[in-house]
Amino acid sequence: MKNKAVILGANYYIGLSIIRCLGTKGIHVTAVDYSKNGTYGFHSKYCSETIIAPHYKKEPQAFCDFLVDYAKKQSHKPVLFPSADPYVEFVDKYLDILKEYYLIPQTQQGLYTQVMNKETLHKLASKFGVTVPETVEISEDNYIQKVEEIIKYPCLVKPTDSPSFVSKFRKKMFKVYNKDELQQAVNSATKANLEVIIQRIVPGFDDHMYTFDAYLNQDAKVTHWVTCQKYRQYPINFGASVYTGQKYIPELYDIGAKFLETIKFKGFAEIEFKKDAETGKYYLIEVNVRTTNLNNLLYKVGVNMPYIAYKELTGEPIKSFAITRDTNLVFWYAYEDLLAVRKYIKTKQLSFSNVIGSYFKPKAYAIWDLKDPKPAFVFINNKMSRVFNKLLRRD
Q1: Are residue 145 and residue 196 in the same domain, yes or no?
Q2: What gap in Å lies between CA 150 and CA 158, rounded to an integer?
Q3: Least crowded by CB within 10 Å, which of 96, 145, 157, 378?
């Protein structure tokens, strides 16, 4: 295969999963990051090349120039894979330049950002008839009164730009229980120059969260898809998947495929839904427009999303395919799941027996792979070193 695959980001298991999905197919994989510290993806045996580049946020123009220079040296256009939201934002900003030198699924500059942004996403969803949680914008007159009359407490103060919010506050949103907490949350976000919206909490435990994972070809048509059900997330209640199972739910295809095709999306997308425990209605929560936490689960059940993208963009599309049965396979990020379990039990949302019983399922691990074990050992060593250093500082 003549086209290299360039993966942006190797310091998290999403980048590692992309490296493995492509490397196992014999593709030359180039992993790019801004530091060697913590980049355990660099240690995968499927990594053909590792490169340290300028920081995507601190030196975006230098990073763009770096990628262009790299591509110019190749005999064929590389296929570009951003592994985290900040990299997606970077690619979207420089899309008109990068697409001259790289193969990238999305061709419409700004669409990635529009779908990632909570405010514009909800407007898009509402426009095309997709149900979203009731939302109030802080720019509206008497927004606090509207929250108290329409949304009620507790409610969520959510960022429109998640990566920047998480970078600042180390959490995905604020959960507030009264007017004072609402004002404090809004003031904190405003002080940090971050836009937020206020949203109703859809009733239901974490296992009422579902995903529709799909690949859309260059005609903006869904060709491959899988649906999943979350069991646990971290941070609990409003976090990322740490224990999630593949589960066939055709209704999510009916909603998700229609929406993504209508907005002319291309490439991989994951729509997160929450099923209202009282009404049974599915609410669109957010859309991830890059490879997600569940990538290894999708791969293990038979849908290799990075490879599907690579083959289509290099002119050899793979025949359409979907998982239309339950496989009983689960994704497990053990490190954060154990942290989550402690919280679930402490808050009495789950019992010890609930947790133990859930583990008797075949697993798609976030990091561990018997055929490629070194990244897991590097990850464990990094975590142990941090703990050891903290203990030394205390002494």
Answers
A1: yes
A2: 17
A3: 96
